[in-house]
User: Fold this.
Amino acid sequence: MNVLIASGEAVPYCKTGGLADVAGVLFRELNAMGMDARLVLPLYGGIEREFDLAATGVELEIFMNGRLYSGSVYMHDKAVFIRCDELYAREGLYGDKAGDFPDNALRFAFFCRAVLESCKAIGFRPDIIHLNDWQTALIPLYLRMEYGGDDFFRNTLTLLTIHNLGYQGVFPREVLPALGVGEDVFTPEGIEFYGKVNFLKAGILYADILSTVSRKYAEEITTPEYGFGLDGILGKRRDVLFGILNGIDYREWSPDVDTLIESRYSAGDLKGKALCKERLMDECNIRLKKGAPLLSFIGRLSVQKGVELIVDGMDRLIGYGCGLILLGTGTREAEENLMSISLEGRENLHIRLDFDEVFAHSVYAGSDMVLMPSRYEPCGLVQMIALRYGTVPVARNTGGLSDTIEDYNALTDTGTGFLFDDYNLAVFLESVKRALTLYPFSRRWQKLMKRGMEKDFSWRRFASEYAELYKKALSGELGRA
Ligand code: ADP
Assistant:
C-alpha cells in the first residue's frame, strides 16, 4: 500500500507540538510494517543545516496570486521536502515572536498544490493521502476541482486527521486568489465560514474519511459545545469520522528505562519513585509533611488547558497540605500573570515558565498526581505519560482524558485516576479532595498507581489502527466523499 503523509511538521525534522510526533512516528512505523509510506513537508529554514537532503531535480511552477511561484523537490530517505525559499525559508514554522506569518494562506495553499504536483513528478501514486490539520486540508478540494479527471489520482483516497479543532486556518476573503480558487467555492456549502475562508472546512467537506485523536473527541466535535462552529458539517459526516488515540514512545517515557530521573522504578518495585519525589522537592524548595502529596501541572498555559482553575485553586491546594509544581509556557500575558504569583513567595509552590523536557521527566517521576482540568482535550499526552510513571491524573472528563483514564470507584476499588465533569473550580477541587482522601491509604493508592502503569498507550498500537483504517477505506467499506 502506498501512503503519503502530508503534514506541516514531523519529527525529527521540525516540531512545534504533538502533531510532529504523531506524523513522524506514523511515517516510521508504517514503513516498518512493510508499507511504502512517504512523508511530505515544507522545507523550512534550518532543516537543511541538520539533514543531508538530496535534490531530485524536480521543479514545480505553480500559478497563484496572479503570478508563478517556483518550487523544487528534495528528499531525505523517504521524506519529501517542498522547497520554496520565499515562502518557507524562515526560522518559525507558522509564525514568529510577532505572531502568525501574514502570508500563511498562500504558504499552505502552495504546499497543498505542490504535494499533488510532486507526487506526479516523482511517480509516487498514493493509495491514501493522510492529511493532518488545516495546513493540508485544501488537498481534497484541489483533487476534486483540478485533478477530478486525472487518471493518476483516480484510485487515491484522502483521510484528514483533525488534531485540534481549535485551529482551523481561517483567513479573510481576500486570500481567495492566493488559493487559486474562484468565488464559486466561496459559499456556505463550500469553504466560506462566516464571511471568511476556512481551510479545515474544505478538508472536512471533501476528504473521503475523517479522523480525530480520541473516540470521545470524535463525538464531542459534532456538538456545539466543542465544535467551534463546524459541528454541523462534522455531524453530517459522522459515519466516516473515526477516533484513533495517539500514543507515546515508551523508550523515552518509562520509569524503568528513563535515564533522566533520580532513580528508576517499575510497577513491581516502586521504591525509586520516593527518591524521585525527594529529589524533586529539594530542587523546587518544597517541604511537605511526611505523607503529604506533591501535585503538578505540565502543559501549555492556554485557556484550553484550564490553567485558570489551577491558578484560582492554588491557595486551596496548598492549604490542603499539598506541594504544587507548575511547568508551562504560554502567551506573554499568561506568563506574566504566573510570574507575579511566583513572586508573591508562597511556600510549597514552584512555578517554572520554560519548555524544559529534562525537568518534565523529573516532574512526572517525582509527583504523586498531575492535574489536567482541561476545557477540552482532543487526546492529551500528559496523562498517558503520568499514568506510566505511577503519577495519578486528576482530570476533566473530556476528549482523550475520558478515553484513557478510568475514574476511581471506592466500592469496587477500580480505576486509574479521578475524573470530574463540570468545568468549575468547586467541582475540580472536589475531585482533588477525592484523591486526597484515598492517598493516605497507601496500599489502595499503590494498587491505583500500578493499574495505571500497566496500561498500554504505545505508538505501535496507533500506527496499526491507522493501517487498519486505510485498509477498510480502500476495501470500499466506507464509501467516498
Ligand atoms: P498539547 O495540546 O500541547 O499537544 P499534549 O498533552 O498532547 O498537549 O502534549 C504536551 C506534551 O508537551 C507532553 O509531552 C508534555 O510533557 C510536553 N510539555 C508541555 N509543556 C511542557 C513544558 N513546559 N516543558 C516540557 N514539556 C512540556
Notes: The longest helix spans residues 104-122.
